[in-house]
Design goal:
globular, 23 strands, three-stranded antiparallel beta sheet, 30 helices, ten-stranded mixed beta sheet
């Protein structure tokens, strides 16, 4: 999307209808003049019925919603339940994606026209169509508050991330409680630094001893827990930070680890300490993420084993001198115990600060990706990187650049009409116009292009893409400054802002490229930074901040992303929900693309995918070269990515982000305190802004805590390692059966099918061709292999999905009214078996219906009715992928309700993840939070 800023109206042959003195010109990228984006897609009606996976109760139901047929069931469910506005069951309730997109996009366009963003009315219309097309095709998404609020009668809150401030007065502390509560009520989160509050080692003006910040944390924690339990479906998201030189730093470090010991004692005494358990209310500090803000002086003292001074809040004098390494080790030990505190690197954060004359950056939002001035907010949007991967597996850098230009323009427009929870936050945000453009699906993109996540090539491509994104965002920000003016606080911060822009550009020059993909992206990024610096020097910039990497939880599901934020893939085998109920396991569709990028042939790809479906990993996959194993390394499972691999990826992209990165470095249970120290130290050395770790099974307050506490060896609970093997269930001597005669393309034959007494297919025999012929022998052998597979538990629907539509002679007309045409004998046989032995719901998923059912479809097509026993067209939709799940799924695998639970079954051990409070499904990691694949709920990040 190439746009010219500040051009006089009517120049360069552009239409002059509704011309303005200045503004941006918008050229079409995705859309066609005269064709509305809605007219380019195929729409369909679906029923959304969401249930609690644990007890089957219905959580949400809305029938007849309208979406493009390319949208997955999960994306439809989440958008319908989360983002459609209006009371259910009323005419005011939104029922189409068109209504949702129009509600948001038209609000943005009206605000853009009102505030003179566009040179002409024609440019405004093109902008509307381009934005609509990108949202319709899942190219990007705004953060959740935009979908909740924009265009409704509610307050137009567009920001998901907030930073508050608190001073050393009781009035300010009480205001903190109130402001946090208002933000939690709106479904967002906030962070703040408590370091201005004097320590418990200092005196009050009245002569008494101060309580210290940790004591006030108790009140804020209780408030957050109460607001959450007042009807919210997710925990209150909050961050509390303390500077490392605060005299109460050691008490703050140990708050969570001490509570974790309390939880263990309660558990051993028989109390309910699962997440959300009845007895967890007595445990404190569980509603916040804790972080220590370390400075370079402290980290150098750790490096040299020196001493460090803790300073009074009132006059800055040294209250106590401590050994820096002792404090650092306490931080690592507490994080090893309870995953808190995380660490934030103050020196790096403020060295990249664009507005230091307006105040230091002292805090972050709850997930640590937004870092800027106190009492400020940031609205986010994320691009789906897989939408820019061409068919030849190269990254379309030019298209990505144009998409970023359009999205960042829309994000800036939103500040013009946005509402804020407090006037102080609104004033700061309008003055500095902080934005947070980011991306999702990086892990999928790297795998699809044949890059290992933990590799030089993978990091180079990631760095180049991130540099291009931020460079383009700031270039567009400079262009917008020329059209509608720089941010209000720019004048006093101009030198600092330009210095940070030069730092970004210099970091871009240091990127080392390895492959045609990252070479092309990096070349364009270099040009964009050069152009952006020139335009910015002339115009200034519209935004003090432009980019960050958020968890992209719910919006990642809305865009049908395989991976969130900067994360690698969770595992190679995932869960997929099916229309009409149920789910299936599938091999990630990124895997075949990765194998193609690595040069494998179609036959090899199919064999490797089949192996992954059965085993869940690539080790010893047939034909896969060991040097390619690393491409398929994931966050969990066999060959999981090493903790330092996550840190190195963060370090590769951090120099190209205005803000920081929401990500937790997962560590194995066997990791030591020294390992945590190494991660925290390397984060500082490599230039990160923030870092958090999570050691497997370090927290007890989860649904799958380990056994009881220390007991005698005879009493200790031992985790059983169970190896699941298929067991053959033979048919009884006497069993029900049926025989069907058939004709396919003139060839006659017989199908004999034997069943278990409880009505499950157990064997087939096919008579085709003369006895003794090659064809007859092959069919006998084929029948025996299918029969044995059925008796070992391979589902019939697996065979049907494999053999239906198989084409070879004889083929053509049949004498079966339910299967009029067949591509081959096997195509006919398995369609007939499906009709005779599979329930309607499974046949609907496979697209196999009787003649009566097809007639009913035709009769109901116009009305879409599903009542009175009529056929439900939405249920009939086939969503079965060509790459089906594990052919040896046993009953335990079928009991999984999410990708995390499936992974647990594969690994034979539990994963530390909470159950969704809405639908009961086990959540999966997303940045520093958790995401529910079932309903889109998150544990704190929009």
């Amino acid at each position: 999307m190439t746009e010219t800023v500040g051009s006089p109206a009517g120049a360069a042959g552009e239409p002059d209808s509704g011309a303005r003195t200045k503004g941006i010109r918008v050229q079409r990228v995705y859309t066609t003049e005269g064709v509305h984006p809605y007219d380019e897609v195929s729409w369909e009606r679906r029923d959304v019925v969401m249930t609690n996976w644990r007890d089957g109760s219905v959580n949400f139901e809305q029938r007849g919603v309208e979406f493009p047929d390319s949208w997955s069931l999960n994306a439809v469910n989440i958008v319908t339940s989360k983002y459609f506005r209006g009371a259910q069951g009323t005419a005011q309730r939104e029922s189409s994606l068109r209504q949702l997109i129009d509600r948001v996009v038209k609000t943005y366009v009206r605000a853009g026209v009102e505030h003179d963003y566009f040179a002409t009315d024609a440019d405004a219309e093109v902008f509307e169509h381009e934005l609509t097309w990108m949202l319709l095709h899942q190219v990007f998404s705004f953060n959740s508050p935009v979908w909740f609020n924009v265009g409704t009668s509610s307050r137009q809150q567009v920001s998901a991330c907030f930073i508050l401030s608190v001073d050393d007065t009781m009035e300010s502390i009480l205001d903190w409680y109130k402001e946090e509560g208002l933000i939690f009520k709106g479904g967002s989160g906030a962070g703040l630094n408590l370091s201005r509050i004097r320590s418990s080692k200092e005196l009050l003006s009245s002569g008494g001893t101060a309580s210290g910040p940790v004591s006030f944390m108790r009140g804020a924690d209780a408030s957050a827990g109460t607001i959450k339990s007042g009807g919210a479906t997710r925990r209150a998201a909050k961050m509390v930070i303390l500077d490392v030189d605060h005299p109460d730093v050691e008490e703050f470090i140990e708050t969570k680890s001490k509570e974790e010991r309390k939880i263990r004692a309660l558990r051993d005494a028989g109390f309910d300490v699962d997440l959300g358990g009845a007895d967890m209310a007595s445990v404190q500090y569980q509603n916040a993420n804790n972080s220590i803000r370390v400075n370079d002086e402290f980290m150098r003292a750790v490096e040299s084993d020196g001493r460090f001074g803790l300073r009074a809040r009132t006059d800055g004098s040294v209250v106590e001198t401590v050994q820096a390494r002792d404090v650092f080790r306490k931080m690592a030990k507490a994080a090893w115990d309870s995953a808190d505190p995380g660490i934030q690197y103050d020196g790096t954060i403020n060295d990249w600060h664009t507005a230091p004359e307006s105040g230091r950056i002292s805090a972050s939002n709850p997930c640590s990706e937004y870092m800027h001035l106190d009492n400020s907010s940031c609205n986010l949007a994320s691009l789906n990187l897989m939408k820019f991967l061409r068919s030849d597996l190269t990254f379309d850098a030019e298209l990505f650049e144009k998409a970023v230009e359009l999205v960042i323009t829309a994000m800036d427009i939103s500040i013009s009409f946005a509402d804020f929870p407090t006037e102080a936050i609104g004033e700061t945000t309008r003055k500095y116009r902080q934005l947070g453009i980011g991306y999702a699906n990086l892990g999928a993109l790297l795998m699809a292009t044949g890059h290992a996540y933990d590799s030089d090539g993978g990091r180079a491509l990631s760095a180049a893409i991130t540099s291009l994104m931020t460079g383009t965002a700031y270039k567009r920000s400079a262009e917008l400054a020329g059209a509608v003016g720089p941010y209000e606080g720019y004048a006093r911060n101009a030198d600092a802002h330009q210095r940070v822009m030069r730092k970004h550009a210099a970091a871009n020059d240091l990127v080392r490229t390895y492959h045609r993909n990252d070479v092309a992206v990096h070349k364009l990024a270099t040009k964009v930074w050069q152009d952006g610096l020139e335009i910015g020097a002339r115009n200034g910039w519209r935004n003090a901040q432009a980019s960050l990497l958020a968890p992209t939880g719910t919006i990642g599901l809305m865009m049908d992303c395989d991976t969130t934020g900067v994360e690698p893939d969770l595992a190679l085998v995932k869960f997929k929900k099916l229309v009409g109920g149920g789910s299936m396991q599938i091999v990630n569709q990124t895997v075949p693309r990765a194998l193609k990028a690595l040069g494998y042939q179609e036959e090899q790809i199919e064999a490797i995918v089949e192996y992954i479906a059965e085993h869940g990993h690539v080790v010893d996959a047939p034909g896969l070269r060991p040097e390619h194993y690393e491409v398929f390394d994931c966050a969990m499972g066999e060959r999981s990515i090493a903790p330092m691999g996550h840190v190195r990826m963060m370090a590769a992209v951090q120099p190209f982000l205005s803000g920081a990165i929401s990500k937790t470095v997962n560590m194995p249970e066997a990791a030591s305190v020294s390992d945590v120290e190494e991660i925290y130290f390397e984060g500082w050395r490599l230039g990160l802004k923030a870092l958090a770790i999570y050691r497997d099974n370090c927290k007890v307050g989860q649904p799958l805590s380990a056994g009881k506490g220390d007991k005698s060896s005879s009493e200790k609970e031992v985790e059983k390692q169970i190896e699941y093997r298929p067991v053959r269930k033979r048919l009884p001597k006497k069993r029900p059966s049926q025989t069907v005669s058939f004709t396919v393309g003139g060839a006659e034959g017989y199908l004999h099918a034997g069943s278990y007494p409880d009505d499950g297919l157990g064997e087939i025999f096919v008579k085709l061709g003369k006895q003794g012929s090659t064809l007859a022998g092959v069919m006998d052998a084929f029948s025996m292999s299918i029969s044995v597979g059925l008796q070992y538990g391979i589902p019939l629907e697996f065979y049907v999905s494999k053999f239906q539509n198989l084409r070879f002679e004889p083929a053509g007309m049949t004498d079966d009214p339910d299967v009029r045409m067949a591509g081959s004998v096997l195509d006919y046989l398995f369609r007939r078996l499906a009709l005779d032995y599979l329930p309607y719901e499974k046949r609907a998923q496979l697209g196999i219906f009787t003649s009566d059912e097809r007639t009913a479809q035709t009769a109901d097509y116009g009305s879409g009715s599903t009542s009175g026993g009529e056929v439900d067209l939405d249920t009939m939709r086939s969503t079965v992928e060509s790459s089906v799940s594990d052919s040896r799924r046993d009953e335990d695998d079928r009991g999984a309700g999410s990708s995390t639970e499936l992974l647990e079954l594969r690994l034979g051990k539990a994963a530390d993840a909470p159950l969704c409070m809405t639908c009961g499904t086990k959540m999966r990691p997303s940045g520093s939070c958790y995401l529910c694949e079932g309903c889109g709920s998150t544990s704190g990040c929009s």
